[in-house]
Write a structure and sequence with these properties.
Rossmann fold; 296 residues; alpha/beta; binds glutamine; 7-stranded mixed beta sheet; 2 domains; two-stranded antiparallel sheet
Length: 296
């Protein structure tokens, strides 16, 4: 029977040869996934025997990863803010740079709910996650608000123009037990029948079209329309900015994820919105411009 050590050694060589820059990590994560343990277990027990059934499953996972498929799709899961999201080709894989937007949104909701007493009958805060993909922002926010007993005061809508992505988002919402705290709508940006929102959140596609071919191979397995933002990368974000005067409530805030090189581009785009708007760009943990915060 093969051992962890032997399987890993062979897998790391193969993944390295296939072009993975994270061959060891990939192999450890994939083997741990097949064995139903976490990565530390694999590292701590190189001598452990691996049953034939697991070895066959690990081989199948390796073949997919060798072909360039992202580890998150092979595993079927990706962590985001400590939550495990189901991932597959229906939607973009959650990325750590998107975590900031959830933290900012949570702080925004909390500040508004705690600012003044809310007698019974006070309308709920209205929040929308535009282009929710696998549900990342809306679900992580709902989970955090539930932990603070605030979720009942908030109406969270998650939209996507892709019905397949929405299905995955609904599965994730159920998986995190917030299926009943969220609404979902298939729409290009925001359905026209919705009233204005206090908080508009979005991680829309923002990669410049010409940069698409230079992205890692793994990215080519993700839906192109979730990444490709046109010439400057801001086509879809600009369309959202165009409707912002109608969809954002008078004292509302929009938090939009942008590319690290789009600080000037977003400021230009905001100047084209009718009325007076402020745009502050918040940095991510790497110190890169990441979340544009827009207010009237
Ligand atoms: N940060 C992502 C990437 O570069 C892009 C996500 C997006 O376009 N919204 O892979």
């Amino acid at each position: 029977m093969a051992t962890v050590e032997v399987l890993l050694r062979d897998a790391i060589d193969r993944l390295r040869a296939s072009g993975s820059e994270t061959a060891r990590l990939d192999a450890e994560v994939l083997l741990a996934n097949v064995l139903g343990i976490d990565r530390t277990g694999v590292i701590a027990h190189p001598e452990a025997p691996v049953g034939d059934g697991s070895a066959v499953q690990f081989e199948a996972a390796l073949v997919r990863r060798e072909a360039g498929e992202p580890v998150a799709y092979v595993r079927g899961v990706k962590e985001f803010l400590g939550l495990a999201f189901a991932t597959d080709g229906r939607a973009l894989i959650p990325r750590p740079e998107t975590e900031r937007i959830v933290e900012l949104a949570e702080a925004e909701v909390a500040a508004r709910l705690l600012a003044a007493p809310r007698p019974p009958g006070t309308p709920k805060l209205r929040v929308v996650d535009v282009g929710t993909g696998c549900g990342t922002i809306a679900i992580a926010l709902a989970v955090r608000l539930r932990a603070r007993r605030m979720v009942d005061e908030v109406d969270v809508l998650a939209t996507d123009d892709d019905p397949d992505a929405l299905e995955l988002a609904k599965e994730n919402a159920v998986g995190h037990a917030v299926g009943d705290c969220l609404r979902f709508a298939e729409a290009d940006l925001i359905p026209t029948y919705e009233e204005a929102f206090d908080l508009v959140l979005a991680n829309l596609p923002y990669v410049r079209s010409e940069a698409m071919d230079g992205l890692p191979v793994a990215t080519s397995f993700e839906p192109r329309h979730a990444l490709d933002g046109g010439d400057e990368g801001l086509d879809v974000i600009r369309r959202l900015l165009g409707i912002l005067p109608e969809v954002l409530a008078q004292r509302g805030v929009a938090l939009l994820e942008i590319g690290a090189d789009q600080e000037a581009g977003i400021a230009d785009a905001v100047r084209e919105i009718p009325g007076r708007w402020s745009c502050i760009v918040e940095r991510d943990l790497a110190g890169l411009p990441r979340v544009a915060r827009l207010e009237r």
